[in-house]
Every structure is written in C-alpha cells, then in structure tokens.
Amino acid sequence: MNKSCKGREVDIMHLGSGELERIKDVGELKEHLKICKRCRMTLEKFQGVDMFVAATRSPSVTTQQARHNIFKKLFRQGNNYIRDGRYQSAVDCFDSALLLNPEDTNASIMKDVALEKSGKASGVSGIQRGIALPRIDTEKIIGSAAEKIYQCLKTNGPICIPELRQKTGILDYPFYEAIGRLDREKKITIKGFNNQPLFAETRPEV
Amino acid sequence: MFPDDHSPENLTFTDEDLLSRFLEGETKAFDLLYERYLPRLNARVSTRFNRAEDIEDLVGEIWASALKNIRKFDPNKSKFSTWFYTIANRRINDELRDRYKKPPTVTLIPEASATSDDIVEMMQETEEPSPNPVLQFIDSQKAIELNEIKEKIIASLDKPDKLLYQLKFEQQLSYEEIQSRWTSGKKLDIHALEEKVCRLRKKINSKIKEYLYE
Hints:
The structure holds two protein chains of two kinds.
Chain A (H helix, E strand, L loop, with lengths): L8 H8 L9 H10 L1 H20 L6 H22 L2 H14 L4 H14 L5 H5 L9 H19 L2 E2 H8 L3 H13 L3 E6 L2 E7 L4
Antiparallel strand pairs in A: 1-3, 2-3
Chain B lengths: L7 H5 L2 H9 L3 H19 L6 H17 L11 H22 L14 H10 L7 H8 L2 H13 L3 H12 L4 H7 L8 H23 L2
Helix pairs in contact in B: 2-3, 3-4, 4-5, 5-6
C-alpha cells in the first residue's frame, strides 16, 4: 500500500460491509478505489470474509419454516396479482404455493378464484382435488375484513400492522385488500414510523 | 421418498432430479434443494446486503420468484444453477433499485454519507456476477464441508477474537453495542474496536485462503 492508503483499511471495511455512515467521505474513498488496485484487493478480501460468514451463518429458521415463509410470500404475491388484474401470474403463484403446501385450502381456493376471473376455468381444479368449493363473494369477504379492521382501529387507536393482524386474526387475504380499500375510502391513514412496519390509524373525525 | 437429510444418498441427487421430484409433489425434495443452495445464495446476497434479516428475507423472495417461474425452466436449455442464479441476480438488483426509490426505508446507504451516485454505482456493480474467488470456493463446497471449515477457523482464533467474531459476525451488533459488551481485557474505544475487527477480517481471510488453495 502506498502512503495515501494508510488508515484507509477501516474505511474500506466499512464500505464492504455497508456501514457507510462510518466513513467520513464516501465519494473520496470511491475515487481512491478507482485508482488504487491494492485497496480494491483489500475490499475484495473483506467482501470474501462477509460471503464466507453469510454462507456459514446458522439460519434463524428451519428449512420447514423457510418453506412456509416462501409459501406465504407466494400467496401474498398471488393476491396482489389478483388485485392488479394479472390473473395468469396469480395462477402461477398459487400453483407454486400449492407445490410447497399441497394441503392448503386457501391457496387452492384462491387459485380457483384467479382461474375463474381469468375466464379459463370455473372452479374445476378445486373440484378435481376433491375440495367442495363454496361460492366465493370476494367483495363480501373484503368488506367484512375492512369493517373488522376499522372497528379495531377505532377501539385501540394507532397500531402497527403485525399487531393489527394479530388482534383481528385476518389472513393475508383479505387483510391487505381491506387495508387498501379503507385507505382509498380515506377512512384510515397509512404511514411509516421510525423504520417500523406501516402504521394504520383512524383519521380524526371532522 | 428421501433418506435422512444429509445422508450420502441425498448428495448424489442432481439439482434437476430434486426439481423433477418436487414438481411431482415431493416437498422433501424442495427442502433438500433449498438447503443445498442456502449457503451459496446467502453468500451471493451478502455481496450487496449485510444484515442477516435482509439476507434471509431476500433469499425467501428469490425462491418465491424462482418457484413462480419454475414451470418455465427447461433442463435441456440450461443447468438449474445457471437459471436460478440469473433469477437471483435480477432479484438482488431489483431490491437495490427498490431501496433506492424508497429513501425512508433505505438502510444500506444512509443519506448523510452517500449520494445517489454512490447508489447508482453500486447498482451497476451488481450487473455482473462477482468473480470473487471465495464465492467460487463456496459454490464448490457442500454446506456441511463449509461448516466444518468455519468451525476449524473459529477454533484457531484466540479467545478475544472468538468473542469478537461472535459479537460482530454472528450477532451482528453495532460497534457501540460491542463496546458495551466487551468483557475481554480492558475497555476499548470505538476506533480501537474497528481496528480489531479489521485485523480479525484479515486473519479470517488468510485462513480461508489456506483452504481455498489447498
């Protein structure tokens, strides 16, 4: 390392590990990295350590829990696609979710809803799997969830989303759809708070 | 049916075998595939994100994206790993872009010290997969072997370094938190602590290298 590299190692370490707030002048360091091969190599070495640590860090959840989390992500994504009117993508999501958890009736029902809305089938796949399909009135489901959420906010005041979900006991679908509807109807306010999950609160009555 | 998770029989299944079994309805095959790719994927994601929760969340997102398109995968056109890492790299880039678009939730680059140019530059860096030799080494190892190497590396560290590894890398505490929990020897100031972490990184890197070129 040449003289101008002295004392840069710690900054390079912070750069590599994303702790940029600890570096006095990020721009200057980046300029230096462009011209200094040795410092670039130091950065690569440090990133190598980060990769190794990440690859060997014990996961905080078991594989089964991870599978369940992926299932939930797919299920939520599927619901979002339905909301946006992208029914084929929704079917793909629910299909994959069902591969992870073939027993889940919610995913199965939602897949049928997506199929029905896309006009490709009418509850056929659910019947094929031997599931007795009730007639689904999505408007009614979302409406009653919205009512539940509104009442809960009125009683308890501002609550963060996980707590709200716990208190109301509403599933992913129709929870977010109901939140969206209440927001569109200007019955609630959704805002960020100190990097915490979204906050939802009733607006003061005028 | 599959034998126990880490039995030698399971290691002989190719990714494509596991995938086709998964598509036939064996969820256990997915678990094996997930475990097989977890260290490599964690390593890849850690090139752009450092918090363990961020990495874990993004790994889940990547799997969800891959599974959504799983029926489009054609084993005659490419290997599963190539297809999967293409999705992973794209998803990592998307996530960086999303964070760039939503300043209040950006934790990677605090506004005080980083400009939008820095973020764009970092995004451009992600377009090409990193050729870092450690990443290639991780790709070539099995999860159990990697863990054995880690255990050996940690065992070779002295007591204060072990404690520092635990606090900084495993528990991901901030320097301030480490300072308050530091029980080995005299109290350290933040600057000394940063230097210590820097030296520890160098030490770990040289030990990884021993295995890398073995």
